[in-house]
Write a structure and sequence with these properties.
Strand 5, helix 4 and strand 6 form a beta-alpha-beta unit. The protein has 21 helices and 14 strands. By secondary structure, the protein is of the alpha/beta class. It binds adenosine-5'-triphosphate. Adenosine-5'-triphosphate binds next to helix 11, helix 16 and helix 19.
């Protein structure tokens, strides 16, 4: 599909094709392939001007012949147009971040585009860059093309080909299936690199390579700078209370764990959940535990990081984030502090307009989504969110998380004492502690337990007791004390809007 589009754009003489990719090799091979007998030159900061294609009578070969190792981008653009050196060529421009901020270079590129538009030059520029930076002046001459992610079948074929070529022996079907999933969302070059490294470490492609592959994949996703792969430690057993929400997530896990049967039965693929409510009461904990429950990776989308300074950059980042998540699916995509991300929607000015467009993009995706990307969005104050987000068809359900009740507080005490001082737990009166902590959040309770343990250690005690924790409680202010009024206001609003209680 990528190759086909690239060829169409080149044939249509689009002045500048901007390819968003951090895998130069892969993209260059495609360019050399689709340009047929057309000449290809490349300019890059390190080497200067390079002839990338040798065209002899019958054969077309890729080449690395240096034509001028001393030419700056500006000189190159001037002579290329003036001497018509660009005519009938495809010109690859690398290292664009170094000059697309420069007014003079942008003006020279624009001048070349005008010549192409008038029909004086038959040239196509291809900019390859991992970041999108489209100067306003060039907007109308540029089309953006993104590298597409490989399908499961393509990845399978690549691994088998690699194993065959390197005589890596048989790759067991079970390991192969796992590897295919692990490689989703990575480019050809990235997969090849990881395979070579895994092979040179182990001498074969076995189960042992898997952990290492996951680690490499994590790094590569992080390098994209938009999504973060969050390590998952927490499970549903680490969450005290919130039983309605947990039960709801368990039902969704049955569907996600057997999607093909569910689909055949007529079940719709789950879209995701919005969890709103007071801080420190387990919203993030649920996002993490749901990934563990579904047995999928957890990707965190930081909306702040999406915002770019150049025209179209933020939208592009959003598209890339969605593409990576879909390529990795099944996965959980966690969007934290949703209200902050979409604050200012509908307002005036550049920033607000970009946010509004991003929001529209997100809504459309949620509405039409058919992939197994389960979105967990968390928000403290949902009232700041635009009402469109709450309409049916976006999230499967909206839950609100309140301050824990007495029963839940007892469970939370048990979890946090059990994690740190399991032997002391049986002698501690958690019912009494729960009774004393009305208005405390889960995070408050965790804080109290930590304080008590630290204090006991400093005083040289060998264990902690109910009294130690009671003392820590007496010196702590609960969330209700601090945020009382705003908490009751929010709860009232949630009830009026008929959101489901997570407890
Ligand atoms: P924020 O809106 O501030 O991000 P949050 O609701 O996402 O808050 P979490 O990050 O899930 O809160 O909780 C903070 C910490 O408090 C957790 O790491 C956990 O240790 C503890 N905690 C909160 N709620 C619970 C709970 N229901 N059961 C067990 N621990 C909890």
């Amino acid at each position: 599909m990528f190759k086909k589009k690239l060829k169409e754009y080149i044939d249509a003489n689009v002045p500048i094709i901007y390819i968003n990719s951090y895998d130069d090799n892969d993209v260059e091979n495609c360019i050399l392939e689709v340009t047929g007998r057309r000449k290809v030159w490349e300019w890059n900061q390190m080497v200067g001007l390079v002839n990338r294609k040798d065209i002899q009578k019958e054969k077309v070969q890729s080449s690395q012949e240096i034509l001028n190792d001393n030419i700056s981008i500006d000189e190159f653009l001037v002579s290329g147009v003036k001497e018509r050196e660009f005519h009938r060529k495809v010109i690859i421009l690398k290292d664009s971040t170094a000059y697309l901020d420069n007014l003079k270079t942008v003006a020279l590129l624009k001048n070349a585009c005008l010549s192409i538009e008038r029909g004086d030059l038959d040239t196509v520029f291809v900019i390859i860059s991992p970041i999108i930076r489209v100067p306003k002046e060039l907007e109308k001459y540029i089309v953006i093309l993104e590298e597409e992610y490989l399908s499961e079948d393509d990845i399978r074929e690549m691994i088998l080909k690699f194993a065959y070529e390197h005589m890596a022996g048989n790759v067991y079907e079970k390991v192969l299936n796992k590897m295919v999933i692990a490689f989703k969302g990575l480019s050809t070059l990235e997969i090849e690199t990881i395979l070579s490294l895994a092979f040179s470490r182990n001498g074969e492609l076995t189960e042992d390579a898997m952990e290492w592959i996951m680690e490499q994949k994590k790094q590569m996703i992080q390098k994209s700078g938009i999504l973060e792969m969050v390590p998952i430690k927490e499970s549903m057993d680490d969450i005290g209370g919130l039983n309605t929400l947990k039960e709801w997530l368990r039902k969704k896990s049955v569907i996600l764990n057997d999607m093909s049967s569910a689909k055949k039965f007529g079940v719709e693929l789950p879209k995701g959940v919005l969890i709103a409510g007071v801080p420190g009461c387990g919203k993030s904990l649920n996002a993490k535990a749901s990934a563990k429950l579904f047995g999928t990776p957890l990707l965190k989308l930081d909306m702040g990081r999406l915002m770019g300074k150049y025209v179209g950059e933020s939208e592009q980042n959003m598209r890339q984030a969605i593409a990576i998540a879909e390529a990795i699916a099944p996965c959980v995509l966690w969007i934290d502090e949703l209200e902050k991300a979409f604050a200012g929607i509908g307002g005036n000015g550049g920033g607000a307009e970009v946010t509004t467009r991003l929001f529209g993009q997100f809504l459309t995706w949620m509405q039409e989504k058919e992939s197994a990307v389960f979105v967990v969005a968390t928000a403290n104050d949902i009232m700041k969110l635009p009402p469109e987000l709450m309409r049916k068809g976006r999230f499967d359900e909206i839950f609100y998380v309140k301050l824990p009740n007495q029963f839940e507080r007892k469970k939370i005490f048990e979890i946090h004492i059990g994690k740190r001082r399991p032997d002391d737990l049986k002698e501690i009166d958690t019912s009494k502690l729960a009774e004393m902590t009305d208005g405390y959040s889960g995070a408050d309770i965790e804080g109290v337990v930590k304080d008590a343990i630290e204090d006991a250690f400093v005083k040289g005690k060998t264990k902690i007791t109910t009294e130690d924790i009671k003392k820590a409680i007496s010196t702590t202010h609960s969330l209700k004390e601090i945020m009382g009024e705003s908490i009751s206001k929010l709860e009232k609003e949630y009830k009026e809007r008929k959101f489901k209680s997570a407890s």
